[in-house]
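Human:
If only I could read backbone structure tokens as easily as an amino acid sequence. I am handing you a single protein, as its sequence and its fold in token form. I hope you can help me see how the letters and the tokens relate. Thank you; the sequence and its tokens follow:
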Amino acid sequence: MNKVILMGRLTRDPEVRYTQNTNTLVASFSLAVNRRFAKAGEERQADFINVVAWSKTGEFCSKYFKKGQQVGIIGRIQTRNWEDENKQKHYITEVVAEEAYFADSKRDGDAGASFANTFGNSVSEASEFAVSADDDLPF
């Protein structure tokens, strides 16, 4: 199973481009995701994770996501490689966003609520379920 759930802040506004053959929208951006723990006496570290979003999810991200905003992304890890004009091979690992959510609180002045409560406020390529904050969990 290849499933990734991230919550972090955008390091830049999403960059939009279109594929040559099919003219499909692709939005790319980077998320700064804080690590869960910090060593004693040190600041918490962050990982900078590249994200790509295609079609409607990409359109949503490019339209509503801005640098510094906290967002939630659900997707999958993808690795790819290519060879440049100097015959040098390049490798990249990125997250392909399948679902995108606002994660800033309403108090911060953004339209979204907390990540756990915004499952209905997203665009998803294949969203088959919704989580309700009212559901009783058995744990």
